[in-house]
Design brief:
Layout: H1 2-45, E1 48-53, H2 60-75, E2 79-84, H3 89-97, E3 103-104, E4 126-132, E5 147-150, H4 156-167, E6 176-179, H5 182-188, E7 196-201, H6 206-213, E8 217-219, H7 225-228, E9 239-240, E10 251-252
Parallel strand pairs: 1-2, 1-3, 5-6, 5-7
Antiparallel strand pairs: 4-7, 4-8, 9-10
């Protein structure tokens, strides 16, 4: 009897323990749900920052980056694009490789680093060679002995100028290269401090348009693009449509 009573008296105790366990489990579940809700709310309120390397503040890359940032802010408030000033494509590629920026705008000919992946092609860029009419420059070959304003070292325009010049048997010793900030490069020609300017940029650039409107400078054709493709396969011949800048004749590129 004592054994039976002992066993019987143990049953109510087990039921109480089970209720206590269920209460504990229920409490833990409520706490876990509360933590998940708090984390979800926090994630929705948290701002993620993406660093985008572009170009000089007066250039198209920077303006394009600013436009991307504005559109992103409008449609994805929790994502902020930090637009970074940069010398250009080569430096941009290196900065993504080094994790000092998360994304970058680069020219399509820029060598891709191992840790970098292309995302999308955005818009075409065109070779522009602008020369002072008094310098008698009608082709790339005429740059020999001349002062040529270039974009900063580290930019795609600067890097690609030299393979282009080499195709015409021009080396750094054959001309005076002047790497400058874009605004200074554009100012060099009217100030008489340069004979020509070379830049790769989207069609319709306002600064180039202002130079051509003066009537003192011309767009110079860059020929033999088909032959250049043998060593620079990413190049494509194209035409600057008539009227893009000054209403002049179309220029082949």
């Amino acid at each position: 009897m004592r054994d039976r009573q002992a066993k019987s008296s143990a049953i109510p105790g087990s039921a109480q323990g089970g209720r206590a366990l269920r209460i504990v489990l229920l409490s833990v579940s409520v706490i876990a749900a509360g933590v998940c809700a708090a984390l979800l709310l926090r994630s929705r309120q948290q701002i993620s920052v993406v660093r985008l390397a572009t170009g000089e503040e007066t250039g198209e890359y920077y303006a394009f980056g600013e436009a991307i940032a504005q559109v992103t802010q409008k449609h994805a408030p929790n994502l902020r694009i930090e637009v970074l000033v940069s010398p250009g494509s080569t430096q941009n590629m290196d900065s993504v490789q080094a994790h000092t920026s998360d994304m970058a705008l680069v020219q399509s000919d820029t060598p891709v680093q191992p840790a970098v992946q292309a995302v999308a092609q955005l818009y075409p860029e065109i070779f522009h060679l602008i020369a002072n009419r008094d310098a008698n420059i009608t082709s790339m070959a005429d740059l020999k002995g001349k002062r040529v304003a270039l974009m900063p070292v580290g930019s795609g325009s600067y890097q690609l100028f030299w393979p282009l010049a080499g195709h015409y048997d021009l080396s750094a010793q054959d001309l005076t290269a002047q790497p400058l900030a874009p605004a200074d490069a554009y100012a060099a020609l009217p100030q008489g401090e340069g004979d020509a300017l070379f830049r790769i940029i989207g069609l319709g650039n306002p600064a180039i348009g202002e130079l051509l409107k003066t009537g003192q400078f011309d767009l110079v054709p860059i020929e033999q693009i088909g032959a250049l493709k043998l060593t620079q396969p990413y190049l494509e011949p194209t035409v600057i449509p008539q009227g893009s800048y000054d209403g002049g004749a179309p220029i082949y590129r």
